[in-house]
Write a sequence for this structure.
């Protein structure tokens, strides 16, 4: 019988993590000229005047807030000490716990919960919501809960309460269910690191959460020479979006142009297995009157059968009249790639009919998308101006 | 120690194969009305007059030739009997041989050769060409030969000669190298099944290979009411292309319109591991004067590292002046998906700069493509009309 050597697995992951972190540092702050990087917490005195911990003051032509975010952990959980894990400390663990309650089943909870379950940890997944992974399409949510629920029990719809168990471990109770675990993984979301910046005191406009009020096309805060980028702004906490925000904030801070840029069509990928993917408009943002929905169930898909991963569902949304693709949600192996394809097509304003004129190789998971698109094509009014749907006349 | 139960593995594959074949039959010929399907070889008497084996004659308004192809096996190899395998009989084998020479390293030779090697067969790969998988870009060819050569010896640049070895097995000699094997897998290509149709006798124009002369946009043979589709025409023997050809031939045979349709931008995928993929214009079709080439080596790519499959190379081609994407060739894990993305973008006439404005999630193999595109972008003259390459101004 094969068994996992968990400490070796964790060390392997840590080594990879270190490689990636080193690479980022060596391409950024490591290259700053002497004196350019001041390592300190800073707070605003005025919108363009910062003070470091040692009282040093810096007057700037423009300021960019890029302070990132940190995991949300309820204060009351402090008493459980290192039995509470977050992404900050999970990757520092030298071994895996025998059992773990994952509280919060968004992207991080699902990815790490599923990984732990497959590595032999007894995982219980808990979320107050009735869905997982932020899925909004009820058909996709149902599939996802069924598929992932086979790998770890999912307790949905009730908040979790923690107490010390008699044996010193932690009893987690949610609704009428209860389990005693070694560790609790808190994946309740992240909060932006803007609470200790003295934003309000310095006259920087903030919303009810304390997050600076900014324009997502210019990244400018209010009408100040202050900009924000990345997780600090509490919107789209994704690397590629943070990159765009950094570029916009940097350009506008450096030039003072305050130029507005078009933001990306939304793309969310959860690297669960199968992937959970959301593209473009979300299900609950669609007008049922004007929207057509196509779908394909994964079980009969040839390539999925070959990969022994034939489970899931793809749902695609289009404007009923024009056939223009609006969005998609899916749980599906290789969904990450279908997400890119769909996103780029939505960005280009393509219709379902146009997509059906693209090549779909065989046997690939793109054929499952093709089947969903055929289903959708039959439901939209705009048809291709060709006697053969899949082909453009040459004349 | 884990060992493969080869007979069980073959049975598993056969079951899957049967499932897929049944599905095709039950969606096509199984549904023909009584008398619509005549099971017989047929030959042309005139372009619209066919004769079956029992002498029955059929006069048709139009004829579609869709007779498929069969593996090429040199006549001299007949003496080795069932020691010679092709795709026709490989999947009927109940066990795997201990050793096998794979002669011909195109798509089929690479896919099955690599599969056998990983299933424990002692494989020797042989091809007359100095490349494998039809790769034309010398940089990609070098990578592919190095990567796949680590899994099975590749003997390139010399034809194979077969003779009976003293122990009854087969001695395969190519150039100055020689090996004795249990089986020979012949993957020398496929020939169209048009040689026994009496095409010339019936006045149907054929080329020097005996293949009907036809127009690839109308699928019409000469100016006759005769059409051709699929492997029978000896061009692009791929399922999605055959589907297009069938649709065109069917439309034109039924309507007599002889309408011309735009054909797909080429896409070739070899399901080796890593995938070998070719998109759009081939390396040797490009004008070095007007073409820019970008590339990304896979070893440092984050996602490839995570997957422990960080080997290979992506090369992308664009028109130097306009920046319009022309083609790509790669050996790369998940290359099949990058191939679809690139193909669809080429179909839409997109430039390198436009591609860089699309979202690339993290961590995905699409980021390796992004790196190749950045490299390419620096080498083309057309730049994005925006102060930030990756973003479109909103105004």
């Amino acid at each position: 019988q094969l068994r996992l050597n968990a400490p070796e697995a964790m060390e392997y992951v840590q080594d990879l993590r270190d490689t990636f972190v080193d690479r980022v540092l060596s391409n950024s702050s490591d290259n700053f000229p002497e004196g350019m990087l001041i390592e300190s917490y800073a707070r605003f005195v005025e919108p363009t005047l910062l003070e470091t911990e040692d009282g040093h003051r810096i007057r700037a032509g423009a300021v960019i807030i890029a302070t990132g975010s940190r995991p949300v952990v309820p204060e009351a959980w402090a008493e459980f000490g290192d039995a509470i894990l977050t992404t900050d400390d999970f990757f520092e663990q030298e071994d895996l716990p025998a059992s773990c309650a994952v509280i919060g089943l968004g992207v991080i909870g699902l990815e790490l919960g599923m990984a732990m379950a497959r590595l032999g940890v007894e995982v219980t997944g808990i979320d107050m919501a009735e869905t997982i992974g932020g899925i909004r399409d009820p058909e996709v949510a149902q599939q996802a809960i069924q598929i992932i629920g086979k790998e770890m029990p999912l307790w949905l719809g009730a908040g979790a309460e923690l107490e010390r168990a008699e044996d010193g471990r932690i009893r987690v109770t949610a609704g009428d269910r209860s389990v005693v675990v070694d560790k609790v993984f808190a994946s309740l979301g992240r909060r932006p690191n803007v609470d200790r910046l003295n934003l309000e005191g310095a006259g920087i406009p903030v919303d009810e959460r304390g997050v600076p009020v900014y324009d997502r096309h210019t990244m400018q805060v209010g009408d100040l020479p202050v900009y924000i980028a990345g997780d600090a702004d509490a919107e789209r906490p994704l690397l590629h979006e943070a990159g765009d925000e950094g570029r916009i904030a940097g350009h506008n801070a450096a030039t003072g142009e305050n130029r507005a840029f078009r933001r990306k069509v939304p793309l969310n990928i959860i690297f669960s297995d199968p992937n959970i993917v959301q593209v473009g408009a979300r299900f609950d943002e669609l007008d049922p009157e004007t929207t057509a929905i196509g779908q394909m169930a994964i079980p009969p898909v040839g390539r999925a059968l070959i990969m022994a991963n034939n489970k899931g569902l793809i749902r695609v949304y289009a404007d009923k009249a024009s056939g223009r693709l609006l969005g998609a949600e899916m749980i599906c192996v290789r969904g990450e790639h279908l997400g890119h394809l769909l996103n780029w097509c939505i960005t280009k304003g393509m219709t379902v009919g146009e997509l059906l004129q693209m090549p779909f190789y065989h046997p690939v998971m793109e054929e499952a998308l093709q089947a969903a698109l055929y289903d959708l094509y039959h439901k939209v009014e705009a048809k291709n101006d060709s006697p053969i749907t899949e082909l453009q006349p040459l004349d």
Remarks:
- Chain B has three domains: 6-67+191-255, 75-188, 267-377.
- Chain B has a mean pLDDT of 97.
- Residues 75 and 356 of chain B are 53 Å apart (CA to CA).
- Residues 6-26 of chain B form the longest helix (21 residues).
